[in-house]
């Protein structure tokens, strides 16, 4: 016969209430984001156009906007910590996993945001390489530098938010090298500084712009490919870090399968709480140190 004490019943009740509160917060967040997505889709169908009226986009415009926003949506995967924490809290009859899950959400969001920024940096660097290659090809085909730069910028998207200012400077006789240097300040767009130097030398000294862009494109492409090879070689090390991160959860699952009830020991006994605190600190320190070693290998 199993006897349930008043304290255990109260703890279970608090856990259920906390789980319901977290579920309501998640439901409200999902509904809010769904409404925002609908609003973006409606606004994407009609955008301000020339002074004559509006430009009506096709049905594919909302899907294109959704694909562009996919990088931001991925950052919100950190909220998955809360459902996992709710399940562990209910299984362990303790509100402690909920608190740990709430603490893990901002930390994981910061980590995902940093990874997204790193991916954007790499994508932008690849676009700069494409910009140099397309511009050099159009120059060899006989196009004027301004038209070649305009076509290459629109094809590659390497200039980003600075595209309007750079193209305006190119069309109306502005300082194109200075505009390119301003665009080169973005993360991953450092190759645009080389493009600015090539443009300035070609304008001031009459040197061939296409030859300079060819050499610049080759150097940037070699650097980009070297980074890709290094990242592929370090994929095994990152896999090892991921396995180390999953091992404690695998140990808990194995203990539960063997009938040891590790959640009760960890969450309801002084020795278990002490082991949980020490083990969590050692796990965090080990993951941080391993990730630091691997990132050190990724640096040029």
From TrEMBL:
Pfam families: T2SSF. It is a multi-pass membrane protein. Residues 135-254 form the Type II secretion system protein GspF domain. The chain crosses the membrane at residues 12-30, 78-105, 234-259, 271-291. It comes from the Bacteria. Its main location: membrane. Keywords: Cell membrane, Membrane, Transmembrane, Transmembrane helix. It is found in: Cell membrane. This is Type II secretion system protein GspF domain-containing protein.
């Amino acid at each position: 016969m199993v006897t349930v004490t008043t304290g255990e019943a109260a703890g279970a009740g608090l856990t259920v209430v906390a789980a319901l509160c977290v579920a309501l917060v998640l439901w409200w967040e999902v509904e809010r984001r769904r409404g925002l997505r609908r609003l973006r889709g409606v606004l994407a169908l009609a955008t301000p156009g020339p002074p004559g009226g509006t430009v009506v986009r096709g049905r594919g415009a909302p899907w294109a906007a959704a694909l562009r926003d996919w990088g931001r949506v991925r950052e919100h995967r950190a909220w998955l910590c809360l459902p996992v924490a709710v399940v562990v809290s209910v299984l362990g009859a303790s509100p402690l996993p909920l608190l740990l899950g709430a603490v893990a959400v901002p930390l994981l969001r910061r980590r995902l945001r940093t990874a997204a920024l790193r991916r954007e940096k790499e994508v932008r660097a690849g676009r700069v390489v494409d910009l140099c290659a397309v511009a050099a090809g159009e120059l060899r085909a006989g196009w004027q530098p301004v038209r070649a730069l305009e076509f290459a910028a629109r094809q590659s998207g390497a200039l980003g938010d600075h595209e309007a200012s750079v193209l305006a400077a190119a069309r109306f006789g502005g300082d194109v090298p200075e505009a390119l240097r301003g665009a080169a300040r973005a993360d991953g767009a450092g190759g645009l500084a080389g493009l600015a130097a090539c443009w300035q030398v070609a304008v001031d000294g009459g040197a061939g712009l296409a030859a300079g862009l060819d050499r610049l494109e080759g150097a940037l492409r070699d650097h980009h490919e070297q980074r890709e090879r290094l990242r592929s070689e370090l994929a095994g090390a990152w896999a090892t870090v991921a396995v180390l991160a999953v091992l404690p959860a695998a140990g808990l699952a194995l203990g539960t399968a063997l009938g040891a009830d590790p959640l009760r020991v960890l969450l309801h006994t002084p020795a278990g709480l002490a082991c949980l605190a020490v083990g969590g600190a050692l796990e965090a320190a080990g993951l941080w140190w391993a990730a630091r070693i691997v990132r050190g290998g990724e640096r040029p």
